[in-house]
Design a protein that fits this description.
Elements: E1 2-14, H1 23-30, E2 39-51, H2 63-78, E3 81-82, H3 83-86, H4 97-109, E4 117-127, E5 130-134
Parallel strand pairs: 1-3
Antiparallel strand pairs: 1-2, 2-4, 4-5
Bound molecules: nickel (II) ion.
């Protein structure tokens, strides 16, 4: 099996607050990120697909198609948006990088399902020194406390 990764960037704003908590509770949980006027990030997204190399094309998937799918499923929806107000489910779920990575997995997983390749990982960089990896719901079974 071979893995291949396509990287894209998008810009979006958000704030991190739980609606059931008070302003001061949110501020102690999320710090400045809780301020409801929001702040922006230049997110970097890496979508990794795994599969077998097709003996004819030499590819595990059509990379132009992968780029188009990322644009359609993620960039068109997330880029230059205020996530809490414009991108469900973040009207009711905190747009942390963890939750964004899971949402992107769900969007991409719907469209990457071939017998020759499958979605392997979503890596989302929120800042140059912070990223989240999500390997799908099957990976959660290994972590039960
Ligand atoms: Ni932030």
């Amino acid at each position: 099996m071979v893995k291949i990764t396509r990287k894209v960037e998008f810009s979006a704003s958000h704030y991190c607050a739980v609606s059931d908590l008070s302003d001061s509770e949110n501020e102690s949980l999320f710090g400045k990120a809780a301020r409801p006027t929001g702040h922006g990030h230049n997110y970097v997204l890496e979508v990794t697909v795994t599969g077998k190399i097709d003996p004819i094309s030499g590819m595990i998937m059509d990379l132009k198609m992968l780029k188009d799918l990322i644009n359609e499923q993620v960039i068109d929806i997330y880029d230059h948006r205020f996530l809490n107000k414009e991108v469900p489910p973040f009207d009711r779920c905190v747009p942390t990088p963890e939750n964004i990575a899971v949402d992107i997995w769900k969007r991409m997983e719907k469209v990457i399902n071939s017998k020759n390749h499958e979605l392997h990982q979503i890596r989302l960089w929120e800042t140059p020194d912070l990223y989240v990896d999500y390997l799908g719901p099957n990976s959660e079974q290994n972590f039960q406390r």
